[in-house]
């Protein structure tokens, strides 16, 4: 079974990752032979109305493909989001057994077994008998829970709404918190959380899902350890974050911070030259030449980068026009799509 995943993410510019973009991606997955599509909301930041819009667009684009929803509980949205998605046509939702649910996990399986049965949905099994099996499974973990209590996510309450604005995946936030505490850096947790989106934007607004979410978080930790609230020219670059800046993980939807991108390329070439099995004099000479070549190639790449940016803007203009004026959650946002289209068109006209 080939299940294609679309990562749910948000951005300060709502024209990025818009619902028409989602529909276009779903169509491409259909052409590639996908058997189903999973919307992966790894941070639990999808509001119920927006998830309903995503599911509706996907079902309109590829009605023959089942849609599965995967979301975490961290923001508190996911139970309502699941119900709205099911109403819009989703075929399945990912849940966790009750003793492993909530917080940064998934909504409880027992709850949805009961709720969906009460609403008249055919689950394909006897809800009463299924609940008995779920209780047995939950009791197994309850018995062994004390052995693993040390690695539980410590939260002030079962919901952390900061994740809604920062978009940290549920599976990552608990691990990161425990690692910081283990290394006696727990006091930096809030400072790391607060700069996730800034560090992400500097790398082109990548979707926060493995492995990019890990690299963004690691860079935020490095920044916090050095007393910085974002990545600066004084911040050491985490290796994975450097790879993102160098394009090793593909082209992000937004624009990267140019000075950081060029710095990552230079540092990588310098490190590569240092590995040469030659004398230091030769290394120094080669390093200078290589940096000159990097700067030259960088200048030559600008037209290519600009063409990619223009292609992306033209695509988003089309998507925005299709969205604008429609009776949907997206079109009714206070963000003015007309104004954004004008900005895009001015940029495209200026470049030509």
TrEMBL record:
One GO biological process term:
gluconeogenesis
Give the record's GO CC terms: cytoplasm
- Classification via Gene3D superfamilies: Aldolase class I (3.20.20.70)
Task: Extract the GO molecular function terms from the UniProt entry.
Answer: pyruvate carboxylase activity
Q: Which InterPro entries match?
A: Aldolase_TIM, Carboxylase_cons_dom, PCB-like, PYR_CT
Task: Using the record's annotation, list all stretches that form the Pyruvate carboxyltransferase domain.
Answer: 1-131
State the protein's name: Oxaloacetate decarboxylase alpha chain
């Amino acid at each position: 079974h080939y299940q294609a995943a679309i990562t749910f993410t948000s951005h300060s510019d709502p024209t990025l990752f818009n619902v028409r973009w989602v529909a276009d991606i779903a169509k491409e997955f259909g052409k590639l032979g996908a058997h189903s599509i999973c919307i992966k909301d790894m941070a639990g930041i999808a509001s119920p109305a927006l998830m309903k819009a995503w599911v509706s667009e996907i079902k309109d684009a590829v009605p023959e493909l089942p849609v599965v929803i995967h979301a975490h509980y961290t923001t508190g949205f996911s139970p309502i989001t699941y119900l709205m998605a099911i109403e819009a046509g989703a075929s399945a939702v990912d849940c966790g057994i009750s003793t492993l649910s909530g917080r940064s996990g998934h909504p409880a399986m027992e709850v949805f077994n009961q709720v969906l049965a009460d609403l008249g949905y055919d689950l394909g099994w006897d809800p009463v008998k299924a609940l008995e099996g779920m209780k047995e499974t939950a009791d197994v973990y309850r018995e062994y829970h004390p052995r693993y209590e040390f690695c539980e996510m410590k939260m002030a309450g079962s919901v952390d709404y900061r994740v809604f604005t920062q978009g940290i995946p549920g599976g990552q936030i608990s691990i990161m918190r425990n690692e910081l505490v283990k290394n006696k850096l727990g006091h930096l947790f809030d400072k790391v959380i607060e700069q996730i989106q800034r560090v992400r934007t500097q790398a082109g607004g990548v979707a926060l899902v493995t492995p990019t979410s890990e690299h963004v978080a690691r860079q935020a930790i490095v920044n916090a350890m050095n007393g910085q609230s974002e990545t600066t020219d004084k911040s050491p670059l985490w290796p994975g974050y450097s790879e993102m800046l160098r394009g090793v993980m593909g082209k992000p939807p937004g624009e990267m911070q140019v000075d950081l991108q060029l710095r990552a390329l230079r540092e990588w070439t310098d490190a590569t030259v240092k590995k040469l099995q030659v004398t230091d004099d030769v290394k120094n000479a080669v390093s200078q030449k290589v940096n000159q070549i990097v700067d030259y190639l960088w200048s030559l790449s600008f037209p290519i980068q600009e063409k990619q940016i223009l292609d992306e803007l033209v695509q988003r203009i089309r998507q925005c026009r299709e969205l604008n004026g429609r009776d949907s959650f997206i079109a009714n946002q206070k963000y003015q799509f007309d104004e954004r289209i004008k900005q895009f068109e001015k940029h495209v006209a200026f470049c030509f």
